[in-house]
Amino acid sequence: MEKINLTIDNINVEVDKGTTIYKAAKKAGIDIPVLCYLNLEHLNIENRPGGCRICVVEVEGRKNLAPSCSTECTQGMVVKTHTLRVLNARKTVLELILSDHPAACLTCSSSGQCDLQDLSQKMGIREIHAVENAKVSTYRKDASPALNRDMDKCIMCRRCETICNDVQTVGALSGINRGFMSVVAPAFEQDLEDSPCTFCGQCVAVCPTGALTPFDDTNRVIRALADPKKTVIVQTAPAVRAALGEEFGMEPGTLVTGKMVAALRTLGFDKVFDTDFAADLTIMEEGTELLGRLTKFLAGDKDVKLPILTSCCPAWVNFFEHNYTDMLDVPSTARSPQQMFGAIAKTYFADMMKVKREDLVVVSVMPCLAKKYECERDEFKVDGNPDVDYSISTRELARLIKAANINFKALPDEDYDNPMGESTGAGVIFGVTGGVIEAAVRTAYELHTGKKLQKIDFEELRGLEGIRMATIDFDGIPINIGIAHQLGNARKLLDGIRSGMYNFHAIEIMACPGGCIGGAGQPLHHGDSNIIRARFDAIYREDAGKPIRKSHENPYIVKLYEEFLGHPMSEKAHHLLHTHYFEKHKI
Amino acid sequence: MAQYKMHLLVCGGTGCRASQSEEIIKNLNTEIKNLGLENDAQVVTTGCFGFCEKGPIVKIVPDNTFYTQVKPEDCEEIVREHILKGRKVTRLLYEDPETHKHVEDSKHMGFYQKQLRIALRNCGFIDPENIDEYIARDGYAAIAKIFESMTPQQAIDEIKKSGLRGRGGGGFPTGLKWEIASKNSADQKYVVCNADEGDPGAFMDRSILEGDPHSVIEAMAICGYCIGATKGLVYIRAEYPLAIKRLQTAIKQAREYGLLGNDIMDSGFDFDIELKYGAGAFVCGEETSLIHSMEGLRGEPTVKPPFPAEKGYKGKPTNVNNVETFANVPVIYLKGADWYNKIGTEKSKGTKVFALAGKINNVGLIEVPMGITLREVIFEIGGGIKNGKKFKAVQTGGPSGGCLTEKHLDTPIDFDNLIASGSMMGSGGMIVMDEDDCMVSMAKFYLEFTVEESCGKCAPCRIGNKRLHEILEKICAGKGTEDDLEYLENLSKVIKDTSLCGLGQTSPNPVLSTLENFYDEYLSHVKERRCIAGSCKALKLYTIISDKCTGCTACTRACPVGAITGEKRQPHVIDADKCIRCGACYDKCKFTAIHVQ
Amino acid sequence: MNKIKSLDDLRKMKQSLEHGMNIREKSNSPESLVQIRVAMATCGIAAGARTVMNTLIEKIEKEKIPAVVTQGGCMGYCYAEPTIEVKVPGKDPVVFGNVDSKVAIEIVDKYIVNGELIDGVIPTNYQTINEQK
Predict the structure, then answer these.
(1) Theoretical Cys-Cys bridge with B142: which of A198, B80, B330, B568, CB 3.0 to 4.6 Å?
(2) What tens digit of pLDDT does each residue of B332-390 get?
(3) What is the pLDDT of residues B533-562, one digit of tens each?
(4) Is A179 in the B-facing interface, judged by CB distances under 8 Å?
């Protein structure tokens, strides 16, 4: 690799050719402020349109200032990052951005989490020099079941656009209009719901301001909790426990399962259950479905649909309903754990508790925004009553806890309630990319071969690379497995299958970077992918510490089949735990 | 083959066609036929003559008679008198605005005397839809010569030696650009012709494509040979239907002659050209925006480097030059780099096409050697200021150029001098202003354009230009302060310093150059609330001179907002707060009793 | 259409085509050419000016003489029609009267090519091409 030597603020730096000034400065310990720039290094996601011009620096011999985020270092370059000219330019540009941004920080849901607000504090902006009656750009508001768009707050950083198009290849968002009225929006500024949006929410996860925010369900949850007629139960998704602590100043990767359970109980939930339980149930159904298809395939059935595709991720489901309408019979028909939980809760558990369906409120705490959309799907309702009533995000739960004045860090660890609080390590790893398929392999292997696994950890299925492939030996039968996270990678994998380039038996797909741990409902990572890495490790720690690590060994799952469902893929299971998919058309 | 004694060249450019030049061509032909002169005179549809002020133009050669503002009904007279009897139709000849004498032929017109037409050499001279006429004028001889005797590097060296610089605005040395693109290896490279002429009032590229499309095609093929590209793309505004048609015709003819396609002239070199249509966004003249637009993406720039020469269209090395630059290329090979580099100034060689507009007598398209002074252009070629008014400023370089004044009139025009004077060459717009033009309003007007045309990608251009415009509006409305002037300057400098592409890097030029050259005018707006030029409506104050007012009430009835009151036969008064400065009272008053300040 | 295969092909093609463009090319720099103006008013035409003009054009074409033939209005020498005015670069213009095809060829051969004056010169005291403004 060719080396480049340069000086930044009189410090000599040596970097690889192709390194930007911003990164070189970082190496030299110099912090250049950025706004639109975003780099999730572990995930290979970079947004550097060079649009905000906050990161400009002075380069000797260059007539104008250079955007450090997107200017490569050259041999002998002399860079000054904090001259008066630079500081004046940055401040003037930031003032300009603020002059077209609503000064509504007090009530903005991103207040305290907002990169723009932070920068403005850091740069000591105390007044905005602007013309009286200066125009501000305003746009139509758009509320979808998963997220809200208030583009008056958009600063055109284009992060959402990069995520939506380059990373997720969804293509719901793009720059529209020109000049002062430029904004990122669905084509023709239509509603997100009418666009090919999958509600993965990754745009929300990277939005530096309050322009893209989650649809907020907390008030409805509070109202249900306050209603004495209602029995309110809650389920918590695997990835939540690995991230919730961050909202309370704890180190990324701190597992807060026990404190979370305690907090939920304090908030007034009648039962605190675990989505991991439903994850184990998912493995029973999906694993059985996989084995069924495999057996037929091995018996020479040409019509059998392989590879089987996982169906736990609602954004992924939306994605293939939009983009792979010719392959609707390929994914597993198993519902997602959230919906399996809801279906069992409002039947089996309601019967057990002798509560009427309409008096039982099921709340889910999810790392995800697409789950908000998923629980509103008609096929998951009985006579209009949804299996899962409200889905709130990790961040919304944190807000509820803060609003209730609960000292989270001081809470004791508590255990989940039974029967739907018992789960295995296999259920926990649903929270990371590769986890669902590992959980499925653990069970499918034992059910298929009738042998005990020698080693439960399938390291070959783990990692943060966007597309991973592995072959697992099922006692002489090689099972080819593909894994993709982020929808763009999913697209590559699916296109490869369509064209016959790949030959897989099973594929796991998660829409978000890193899987659910990087979900859009999680605490904001502000561009630091180390946070996602830390959550990733935490999930596997939780798995390793579980006494039971295979779904089919979960005693309450065994009991559920015995008492209620019969066997996996039974008619009842089919009715409650499986679904079908619809063709969705883009405009 | 008929031995014509005369050719009647009729302008078939967009401007003259809009004034019925097609009808004129039809009538001329009919009349020639009626009088049996088919073997004596031939009517030729050509491209633009540049003298658009007085179009439609009919030029008769070999005697160079130059008929202006010809109407279809004049055709009979032209043919009967001039063609048949050899008598010029005097009333249609160009009349010198100073001497008021009719000028017998174009050789004696001030408009043409100082011009040197290289890029426009065939415009108004050949039939652009007839490849034979281009070939008869040494068309495609340049590329043939290169195939026979030059390696790509030698051909690049010739352009480098000529000193040709990009005519689209940047002034980047063309030969160097080609060399960089030639050195980047790739399985596919592209030659792009930028025909996205976006400056308001500029139409040199359109005129070249309409008047001489083959010279651009030939130059693109030469460029392809030099850099190793087999594909050419012309990015052309969809609003240029005639240029598109002529270009399509020319491409078709070139293919038929084997001058485009595979193995051109047995050289083993393949080259073909495809058209890509732009929707007319100003920013798409910027090369990275242009490439994105061609790729079907939003037309907005990206940070350079990487330059298109490394990573351009579809990620492949791409050389982008504009139409005028290409139009210069074949001549350089035919007459030699040494001939070319003797024209012009030390660092700006050759000629430049300018579009003259504004308060100038001869509005039109001119081509002059670099180094000519603004004075020569404005007063000799342009025929001076309209209606004998006083020259005030000239805006060069389009909407993001600067305003130059009296003191710059004798500066030789070239790339570097214009920048040193606070303006730029741009694509060659030249808008002349007289004493009635308010320079604050001018700056506001240009900002209005750049605000409209900003792509919105980078913050300083998107929001900054808007704010500049708002401050200028405020000043023109008489609400500005001296602080505003200070902020205006700082903001302008920051926008230039921080914007992503050439649009924002230059858009504050009109503000900065007027602040520098006409600071007094700004001051009088903010301090005295006065517009010296008298053009800012909000700063006009209408009062009634009571001595002169007869109380006829005509003004009261004319006032649309009821701002004028008074008894009949008594002096009236205007309520300045209600007055909307429409001037209706001023127009109606028969006693000059309304005073405007 | 045959494709152009070489510089030679192109040159040949140019030669066959430039003929048609000649009068336009010549108009670009008339001052460096011999300018022949044929008076083509009614009187001239009646006296055969058109034929003279055709003869002149053919002749200079044939002899490859750098000359341009234009037509003008009546010069006022109606008694001597057809009249032509010849302006050789560097010399004063000369007007010839009673020019027929034979005389026209003589004018070209003797006056234009060799610089010899021939009979029929009309004394000049009128505005010449050169003086026109």
Answers:
(1) B330
(2) 999 999 999 999 999 999 999 999 999 999 999 999 999 999 999 999 999 999 988 99
(3) 888 888 888 889 988 899 899 999 999 999
(4) yes
List subunits contacting chain B, requiring 3 or more Cβ pairs under 8 Å.
Answer: A, C
H helices, E strands: number in chain C? 4, 5
Question: Is A187 in the B-facing interface, judged by CB distances under 8 Å?
Answer: no
The β-bridge relationship of strands B364-369 and B391-396 is unpaired
- Does A52 qualify as catalytic in the annotation? no
B140 touches chain C (CB under 8 A): yes
Chains near C with 3+ CB pairs less than 8 A apart are: B
Question: What is the value of pTM for the model shown?
Answer: 0.89
Q: What is the model's pLDDT at position B55?
A: 82
Q: Do B267 and B277 meet the contact criterion of CB atoms below 8 Å apart?
A: no
Catalytic member of A286, A396, A508, A542: A286
Return d(Cα B153, Cα B151) in angstroms, integer.
5
- CATH number of the domain at B439-526, please? 1.20.1440.230
> Which chain B residues are closer than 8 Å to C132 by Cβ?
104-105, 108
Residue C133: list chain B partners with CB under 8 A: 101, 103-104, 108
Q: Verify whether residue A516 is a known catalytic residue.
A: yes
> Are chains B and C in contact at 3+ CB pairs closer than 8 Å?
yes
Return the amino acid letter for A113.
Q
Helix or strand (DSSP H, E) at A539:
helix A529-544
Burial A215-227 (b: 16+ CB within 10 A, else e): bbbbeebeebbee
Catalytic one of A247, A374, A508, A542: A374
Residue B455, chain A, CB below 8 Å: the answer is yes
**Phi, psi for A405 (deg, rounded to 5):** 60, 35
pLDDT-derived band at B99 (thresholds 50, 70, 90) equals: confident
- The answer to whether residue A86 neighbours chain B at the CB level (below 8 Å) is no
Closest CA to B346 of B377, B327, B329, B370: B370
Three state DSSP letters for B493-541:
HHHHHHCCCHHHHHCCHHHHHHHHHCHHHHHHHHCCCCCCCCCCHHHCC
Model confidence band, residue A79 (pLDDT cutoffs 50, 70, 90): very high
Enter the ipTM.
0.92
Q: Which CATH superfamily is domain B6-113 in?
A: Glutaredoxin (3.40.30.10)
- Residue C75 in any domain: the answer is yes
Smallest CA–CA separation between C119 and chain B, in Å? 25
Instruction: Report whether CATH 3.40.50.11540 matches the domain B131-340.
Output: yes
CB-count exposure of residue C125 (10 Å: 0-12, 13-18, 19+): exposed
Q: Where do we find the tokens 């140019």? A: C14
Q: Would residue A374 show up in a list of annotated catalytic residues for this protein?
A: yes
Interface of A with B in 236-295 (CB under 8 A): none
**Is the Cβ pair C6, B88 closer than 8 Å?**
no
Catalytic residue among A259, A271, A371, A550: A371
Q: What is the 3-state secondary structure (H, E, C) of A189-249?
A: HCCHHHCCCCCCCHHHHHCCCCCEEECCCHHHHHHHHHCCCCEEEEEECHHHHHCHHHHHC
Domains in chain A, ordered, with CATH? Answer: 3-122 (3.10.20.740), 283-332+423-576 (3.40.950.10)
pLDDT in tens, C49-101: 788 888 888 888 787 888 888 887 777 676 777 888 888 888 788 888 878 88
Check CB contact under 8 Å for B467 and A99.
Answer: yes
| Residues from chain B contacting residue C71 (CB–CB below 8 Å) | 5-6, 63, 86
Q: A299 touching B, CB under 8 A?
A: no
Cα→Cα distances A295→A335, A440, A542, Å = 22, 16, 33
Residue C54 lies in a domain: yes
* A129 close to B (CB below 8 A): yes
> Which residue range is the domain that position C66 belongs to?
28-126
Q: Which of A439, A465, A432 is nearest to A557 (CA)?
A: A439
